[in-house]
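Backbone Fold Data
Goal — fold tokens
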Amino acid sequence: MLLGISGFVIIALLMYFLLKGKAIPMTLFVVLPIAAAFLNGFSLTEVAGFVRKGVSTTWSMAALFVFVITYFGIMTDVGMFDRLVQKLIKIANGRVFALFLVVVIIGTLGHLDGNSPTTYLITIPALMPLCKKLHIRIQSVMLVCCAVITVMNLVPWGGVLNRQAVTLAMDSGVLWKAYQPFQIFGLFCCVVLAFIVSRVEIHHGAGKVDTTEVAEAGAGTPIVADAEAQKLLRPKLLWFNVALTVFVFTLLFMTSLPNYVVFMIGDVFALIVNYPNVKDQEGRLAAHAPKVISLVATVLCAGVLVGIFNNTGMITAMAKMIIGILPASLNRYLHLVFAFLGGFIALAVSPDPLYYGILPVLIEVCKNYGIPAQSVAIAFGIGADSCFTLAPVIASTYLGLAVSGLELKDHMKFCFFPLWGLGLVMIAYGCVSGAIVM
């Protein structure tokens, strides 16, 4: 009982302090779970083991942040985005809905590999400068991008179906056939969302372009026409930098190299060619270091929370508490209850305990009421998947924040209810179509 209560208290305090801006994430990710672990009687040695296991799941994403932020920072410094912005402005011609459709299309294609970091990297940095020129809030672009990621995450090689296939002891490709109607319907919903968001942005003044403004590029930072900024520009190396960026993304898609290794290679060549002088190279690394340090520290600390939640049994204890509290009349609808709550649960619970810890408990209870295991998995999967792009315990969340320049609390406040609503609409579609047994 105490273990489950501790989990709920951690989630409540985490959300409160994050949304109120009263503490930085890395402090909460370390203090709250460690204190809860000791309170539940775990020894220092056990807690150290939990932390070690948790951090081992996030260190590769932390390494990726180091090289990704540096790479796009260098491409901003050399002015690679300037020419791209000018071309995109001509194509968009002030049409806000057209830009959001581009987000849907790029996000759909970019997430075919089921990899959220790749989708963020392809979509956000390229469109950020144009958003600034068209006075479109980057929060809105991130909302549509996250909605597309949510829908496209339901591919057979993605994390949701892979984990569910293990729990259900079936092939993920077979399970995907049951998910396909949801994906098609979900993509239609993303287009509708793109239209609604575009109208909201137009109401806020988007689409009015002042062609006399200085072009803006990268992570929302304006290129100021001063001597220092001019020294960093490399207009004669434009095509090299474009080719290098294409090469980097080709390696991401076409090879099995870890993402951080790909951007590590990109950083090396970007520095050597654009800034041959060693002092200039050191200067570029130092210029982008502050943002790198903050994000890397946050992601590594998130591993502490993940490790303790995953290895103490806290997640299963929380699930059993919810089941015990619910009226007996709701037990046959338990999969729908957890589907409804899934968006909230996924904010604080990483995917492994969701599908290896909570889902088996739900399947076992619902089996007594004749609800097929696959139906339980689909309902819970869609609900939990709806808001995973906002989860503080998911490392890729911070990559999206890094390339968009948003704060976690602002991102969550702006996107949670639209994304949660998207999940509920998809679940309702499943209930009406009969794909989810009620």
Summary: The chain has two domains: 2-58+299-433, 60-158+177-288. The chain has a mean pLDDT of 84. The CA atoms of residues 135 and 205 lie 7 Å apart.
